[in-house]
Specification:
Elements (H helix, E strand, L loop, with lengths): L1 H28 L16 H4 L12 E4 L24 H6 L4 E6 L4 E4 L2 E5 H14 L5 E7 L9 H9 L15 H4 L4 E6 L18 E3 L7 H13 L10 E5 L13 H5 L6 H10 L8 E4 L4 H16 L3
Parallel strand pairs: 1-9, 2-5, 5-6, 7-8, 8-9
Antiparallel strand pairs: 3-4
Length: about 325
Amino acid sequence: MGAELSKQVERRKDIDTQKKILCDLEEKNGCNFPGCDYHVQDRKNWMSELIPEKLHVNKIVWPGTHDSATNEIGIPFISRPFAQCQSLSIYQQLAIGVRVLDIRVQEDRRICHGILLCYNVDVVINDIKKFLSETHSEIIILEIRTEFGHDDPLDFDKYLEDELGEFLIHQDDNVFNKTIVELLPKRIICVWKPRKSPQPRQGSPLWSSNYLKDNWIDTDLPEKKFKSNMKYLSEQPPVTSRKFFYRVENTVTPQADNPVLWVKPVTDRIHPYARLFIMECISQGYGDRLQIFSTDFIDEGFVDACIGLTNARIEGTL
């Protein structure tokens, strides 16, 4: 018992030290980057406001959410805090400006996070359709994957094509160089990541897993994740020469050997430093590589940072 207690005390010190490193870096260098003070008038239609004729797919800094459909997962106040990564519904996320969704499903088409369950994926699809019906020029990247440890839902690719067919932008390398206007009236880049079923083929209405990449490091240490995100981003080609989407996730995750297992207090260790990460990317010469930027418990400030940097790219100030 004494050894375990000592281990946890040292772990707490490590976390506090890492938080202080990020805090000190923010105080020293600030968070001012091109577009940092830009505020779009209507987040629900922010792509429309940035002029779709000028907005190329590979110039967008896409605000995204991690484990997007977990707002009603598990049992409230009991199991939910262990798996909930978002408090807003899919529709609410899209309405505040989120444009990349990370959806996890299991065999019966229910949303899941590990062993905990949420609603059927139909809820996600209906929220997306509602949002698309209320907007005209907003493009969504919809990533749907089979959760680790589960089997693929039966005929799920056909389900996605039947439900979203009229909106689907077909898998095509040329999409990255196109403007939003050139993609319309299609509205969704749907990346389907099955565990065992065949991957979507080139030209398919669905996109294969090779088109959305990331380098996930499973840690609850904020500075460790911050540095890992920067390292892997630095190894990517610039967005203008890339034929895939690359995601950086401003998240840390609970660990089994630490007594703090609720998602919210753990992710709060790194959540405030999203703008610092953008600023550091630019100062270290990697500003032209940031593309999808995701977080737990998305808020308007995170969305505004992504939109502001996107606008700076369009205006040529980055």
